[in-house]
Amino acid sequence: MKGWTGRLLRINLSIGKHWVQDLDPSILINYVGGRGLAVKLLWDELPRGIDPLSPLNKLIIAAGPLTGYPGPNTGKLVIAAKSPLTGGYGDGNIGSWASVHLRKAGFDAMIIEGASSKPVYIYVENEGVEVKPADDLWGLDTFTTEDKLRSIYGSNVGMLIIGPAGENLVRFATVVAQKGRSGGRPGMGAVMGSKRVKAIVIRGTKPLPQPADQALSKIGVEADLAAKAKQNYGFWLRQGTTATVEWAQEASVLPTLNYREGQFDYYDKIGGVMVEKSNVTTRSCPNCVMPCGHVVKDLEDQLSELDYENIAMLGSNIGVGNLQEVAYLNRLADMMGLDTISLGSTLGWAMEATERGLIKDGLEWGDYRRAAEVTLDIAHQRTELGRLLGLGVRGASSRIGGGSEGFAMHVKGLEVSAYDCHAAPGMALAFATSPIGAHHKDAWVISWEVQTNRFAYSRDKVLKVIELQNIRGGWFEVMVGCRLPWVEIGLELDWYWRMYKAATGLDLDLEGVANRVYTLIRAYWIREYGGWSRDYDTPPARWFKDPLSKGPLKGSRLNYDAYQQMLTWYYEARGWDERGIPRRSTLRRLGLGYVEGDLGKVIELRD
Ligand code: PTT
Ligand code: SF4
Asked: Of 33, 290, 302, 468, which has the fewest beta carbons less than 10 angstroms from its beta carbon?
């Protein structure tokens, strides 16, 4: 195979062995890499119903056929496992030199299985694997851990690290790289922690696999130049994703006070303009043509790398209207290895529960100092409150009850990313049908939606959600490059098809791959949940029940029946029945007939 290394590195910590396996070419063609390869491996290898934090879970680290080659933003990887936060399929997409080094070590993917009895870190240098004691690293934050490992291995390695949150199995612990890249929202850091792996350090010294066409480098360089020539490029370099704060305020979708409102009085104190003024440097993933990591100094004069989601969730959503305070909370999350979206949502939920008298000695809106204390408490699991909130909003609300489920902002257990959907039914559908829970990564339909008829519950909107899911979740997550050149500055998708063809010699069947991957992920959830309900594909109750109380869209809320109609259209277009279960005919058409047996054991399949 051209473009792929065609090899997988498997490390079993329980038996202390590792070995290299060839990847079946038909799997690479049909599932490509990244998320596609990950879900295929998890479906095939995980027994049904395992505890995600047991040694039976497997952590998949997967690159794709363009990873590392010259071209726009090819330095990312997917990290996936059965999620301890949702109980379904979980993944994240992280920028790290580990992606390029993995491929230069000769692998498209790596599986970590079993568990070590003691804290360890893993060092991979080409085929050589060493599992080393990590007693002196265990308990350290991700920044200190990176410094210590760099003092041993130098700068020419890639690293994936967990913080105390991952060690303590916090359900929304992530994996961190480069002191500010964080991936694996649905608890991939906790899965790594359950295996007692503090860090993975990779050094690859081999050439990347031969592409099918030597013109690949030329196409990649031309694509980089085309990105730099885009009209929006200069503005992007100044503000990156943080400009979304002002846009979200204008569109009344900026999550505010636990998604009660879509506008925040102090948005301009935490927005893109403020970030631009405060910026001290910019960071990026490998091979990035348009760096988006805007670094500012926080309250303690330390560096903190900001993106839109961090600002909205640790700012407006919890009532903090000061950039240095937001940056401080963000840095703590990065050091602890906590997902900022889930953290901001959980803190917002706890603030509302405190206000309603459901939590004693909780925390007040806007109190960043208490929010910082609680963040550290969650990461270290010190008190009852920290342990409660470490479960995420679904777990915490089901534990304390009292109606708190009604303001727990999640879908399938994953906290909603930073877009309020009281007046955005298309985005609500995108969150509710995202294959990992309420993440925006699969379909950020909201910018299109607010420019068109945002109040419509139309079939067109449903088809737009699917179109975006297939490109974003079904292409960028399987090829594993960063989608921002396309989304944010308008780089044409054709560049990616050309690069894929030059790397692999194959024409991309986008629809086929995306539908196959989406349907296999759906099958995985059904197998793990032991059935399915439309409620799982329905957004949080708050957006239906509690209208916006102020702003230009005052009174707006979602219509439940109209939403359910959209969901029915969604299922039809995906070839799933009205319960949300893939039809037999769909499974067979997509080459997924092999799941029928397992799926048929938990639910009746229809033709
Ligand atoms: C992503 C999610 C996002 S999406 C953000 S900000 W965003 C939050 N960032 C966090 C952070 O930082 N620290 C922290 N402790 N937790 C964080 N949680 C949140 O994680 C990220 C960028 C961004 S910035 C976005 S939109 C794009 N996401 C991509 C994606 O999902 N797929 C893809 N093919 N390309 C993408 N490009 C962009 O990558 P998750 P990263 Mg992230 C400080 O991982 O789990 O998907 O969650 O990986 O390297 O940090 O890049 O306004
Ligand atoms: Fe990484 Fe941002 Fe560049 Fe994408 S745009 S590759 S997320 S630095």
From this structure: 302
Q: How many CB atoms lie within 10 A of CB 600?
A: 11
Mutate to test the pocket of ligand 1, among 35, 96, 245, 307 (most ligand atoms within 8 A of CB): 307
Compute the chain's Rg from CA coordinates.
22
Distances (CA, A) of 332 to 50, 90, 151, 245, 372: 32, 23, 23, 21, 7
Tell which atom from ligand 1 comes closest to the C-alpha of 342.
18
126-151 average pLDDT score: 98
pLDDT in tens, 152-181: 999 999 999 999 999 999 999 999 999 999
Locate the DSSP E strands across 56-119.
Answer: 58-62, 76-82, 89-95, 109-113
Report how far residue 55's alpha carbon sits from residue 253's, in angstroms, rounded to the nearest whole number.
41
- If you average pLDDT over every residue of the chain, what do you get? 97
Extract the tokens encoding 140. 């350290």
Angle between helices 368-380 and 323-336 (to 10 degrees): 0
Q: Is 33 helix (H, G, I), strand (E, B) or coil?
A: coil
- Residue for token digits 């499974």? 587
- Alpha-carbon distance of 128 to 204, in angstroms, equals 10
Cα–Cα dist 596/593, whole Å: 6
pLDDT surpasses 90 at 593: yes
User: Is the C-beta atom of 543 inside 6 A of ligand 1?
Assistant: no
Q: Residue 376 contacts by C-beta under 8 Å, 6 or more apart in sequence? A: 332, 336, 382
- Which residue stretches of 308-360 are H helix? 308-314, 323-336, 340-355
Cα 363 from Cα 407, distance rounded (Å): 16
pLDDT band, residue 1 (cuts 50/70/90): confident
> Looking at the CA of 283, which ligand is closest?
2
Sign of the CA dihedral running 226, 229, 232, 237: positive
The structure tokens listed for 147 are: 């410094």
Q: What is the pLDDT of residues 270-294, one digit of tens each?
A: 999 999 999 999 999 999 999 999 9
Average pLDDT of 456-476? 97
Pairing of strands 120-125, 128-133: antiparallel
Q: What tens digit of pLDDT does each residue of 480-495 get?
A: 999 999 999 999 999 9
* Closest atom of ligand 2 to CA, residue 488: 5
Q: Which residue in this structure is represented by tokens 């990564």?
A: 441
Q: Can you tell me whether residue 551 is helix, strand or coil?
A: coil
Residues with beta carbon inside 6 Å of ligand 2?
73, 95, 284-285, 288, 290-293, 482, 484
Structure tokens at 52: 């995600």
Torsion of CA 424, 425, 427, 432, to 10 degrees: 140
